[in-house]
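Inputs:
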Amino acid sequence: MTTATSRTAASSNSLSHLTGQLREALGHESVLSNHSELVVYECDGFVIEKSCPDVVVFPRTTADVAEVVRLACAFDVPVVPRGAGTSLAGGCLPVGGGVMLVLTRMKAIEEINLRDRYAVVQPGVVNAWLNQALRGTGFHYAPDPSSQGACTIGGNVATNSGGPHTLKYGVTVNHVLGLEAVTADGRIVRLGGPCEDYPGLDLVGGLVGSEGTLVVVTKIWVRLTRDPQGWRTLLAIYNSVDDATNSISEIIGAGIIPAALEMMDQGILVGVEQAYRLGFPLDAQAVLLIEVDGLEAGLDAQRNQIIELCSKCNAREVRQAKDAKERQLLWKARKQAFGAVGRLAPSYCTQDGVVPRTKLPHILRRITEIGAKYDIRVVNVFHAGDGNIHPILLFDERNSEQVGRVLKASEEILDECLACGGSVTGEHGIGVEKIGFMRKMFNEDDLAVMERYRQAFNPNGRLSPAKMLPTAGACGIEQTHPGRRAAL
Amino acid sequence: MSNSLPLTNTESPQSAQDTASIVRDCIAARTPIYPIGGGTALDFGLPAKTPGVGLSLAGLSRVIDYPARDMTVTIEAGIRVAELQKLLATERQRLPIDIPQSEQATLGGAIATNTSGPRRFGNGTLRDYVIGISAVDGHGTAFKAGGRVVKNVAGYDFCKLLTGSLGTLAVITQVTLKVKPQPERSAFVVAGFRDLDHAESLLNSLSQSRTAPAAIELLVGPAWRNDPALGDLLPGEPGFIAVGVEGTEPEVRWMVATLVEELAAPATSVGKALRGVPGSPVGVATSTRPIPARREQRGRSLQSDVREAPAAEVDSLWHRLTEFPAIGGTPLTLKVCVPPSQVTAMIRLILAADPEASIQAHAGNGVVVAKFAEFSSAAYSKLLIGALQPAAGHCGGSVTVLRSANPAELTHQAAWGSLGDSAMLMEAVKRQFDPHGLLNPGRFVYFAR
């Protein structure tokens, strides 16, 4: 039984042979093989690790993808799929080189069916494009990760992406009905489809979130969600983090499921205010962006109840968006918070962890302590409704000693998430970054079952080697010093 | 109803460790294992043929952790669904999945069969609520996946894989669920329809309703006549559409009034994909459909017989809608899954073959449960395999057997339909989890075991 190992790059002779065959199959303009072109793809949003692919291809059709995988099999080289490369966990890192399959040219929305509430998209469709296409129809595609302006639906499927609306609307897997995919040996399979409850195993559910380690997804049937009738968007401002997190507990305890419940601490608030001048008080310790959606007949009552609960928890002020423009402005502050981080430090590293919601006050206190311990400044913006934290560690990448402390601080924060009964990743995935944590979250038996499952799809370990599961080759990644910052 | 399984004996472990130990013993002896929850779905699938050990999970019923403010609950898989709901009700929460025979059915069994009911339209299915799972596979390995938090993408999603797997990959011992708040109240709006074309226009209208129904049920046949909640059909009406709504008092009142208005004068059919409809300002009550006028079409009024069901009958109607698929006594119960726009077409086919069939369609999901009053042996090949499965397949759907009075007549094709590309992958996954083919052999979709 072959386990996924770090493969040695194909010898240069067979590599040029493979490249030639790829050019023949896909066309010259769909294949990159010069080093200066390849280096663009040496990392994704996780800039700390780098590895150059041997060749990059841009298929246009499912048949192209199948051909590429078949050729990779014939030459026994790894295959790594990639969408927009926004992964923050090294999900697209081509460990061991090999063929990088960039899916961005497969970018058609093939069908939108409102009566039957589904759409069919190619994996390279940018998340935001789908919702743009649906504007005005009364429907939308619910999963909206903050990177939706760049990330692809195929990538969303690979990582089971979330975003701010998951507490009420679920994550990507709850909105995927079917997949077409190419298997590790180059077969094209269709799983699920536009209907519900297909007989047999839920392979679609078992493939979403598999981070490119099982199949290459070439088409997705997604569920469309009816637009809510209305929204109420509130911004609650607090003098203490504890008051903000207590409010969250109170709101949930009252039986209200907000469509979104996002928190920003003072650190990020300062950056956001400097960038966007929204009139946020710079001395506030935390703000909560709270949105409820649904029927007009119920929204005012929910809004009033939320205001009451926030005030009960000592909110200094609760602002309401009066119209669509104000609503968009409040959301802009949240969705572009990461962009504002540039004002705070030359480089940053976003962590992704989860704790039970009731443990939020505790984890935020621990993050402050850990930051102090390693002398690293940490600011927080995150999906408070579901306990998914995103501590942002600020540093200067030119200072490699500081980078070392950033990595240690990150690790301790994630250890603390586990100690609270949470997870080491809420939405970014394990990728390369968190392989070391898999043994902390799962024991050897759990990992053995996952490894066996991967064998069913990827017996030679050719697809996305050294990802997600800690196997023999996965420890062999060298830590290089960080290079360029990734744009979000 | 363990007499549907060829059991040599039954084991009743009291803990997950006991369970794992029994599974390991059976594997060592190469003895088949038949997991049993409440025993309410043991006749589901193909009839088991190989004698083996019954493994009753009912002794695993402990509540492990219930942090209500986190909206999650962790329990052992043998807990009866009704008991779980009672526990959740103490915090005004619920698992919003309709599971029949809930006093007997266990959570693990419901998950293994992916049982659902009318509220799947507004709330989803068990697949959307299982966030952590512990189980013992066919190697005897006790493993877990997922976790205790609602947001978690670490590792492969075995919560999804095991849901609906009929105990053929692993025996579920413990589950963590997302739960939801209990709504304040619910109501039904009931509309009789003149014929299936009229039904389709009502369903089309509902697909664009300004309300957010919890359930859209299309009900035809003898089972629904003389129903105290649905009332009487007008002469010539084949059946009802019952729309269930849940929420706060003002929300429910508004939805009932709006549905009555929308169903009394449905919009005309809009085809597969709407062209751009002008959007409305955000935050304001949005109507995305044209305001319907009372119109005459082909010389006949489209007005429907629409009313709210009596409040006192609402709970019992939910109950009947939940129990319908589980009530036996008919030759055959099928489950047809098609796109929602094809529901009335499939019902037409079914009624053409058996005008006395009783049908419950979760019309917003495209799921049709059909109980045949008559179903001959010849009908398995002629009607089911020869007509219904191809018709469903043609629009990307499926037809499977939920219950047969004569399981010996079931072929693999009749029970499961054509599995297409997925068959090979399912076999490969099964081999990895259960290499000796000992978990619930012969019942599910695999050709090998």
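Residues 74 and 134 of chain B are 11 Å apart (CA to CA). Flag for discussion at group meeting.
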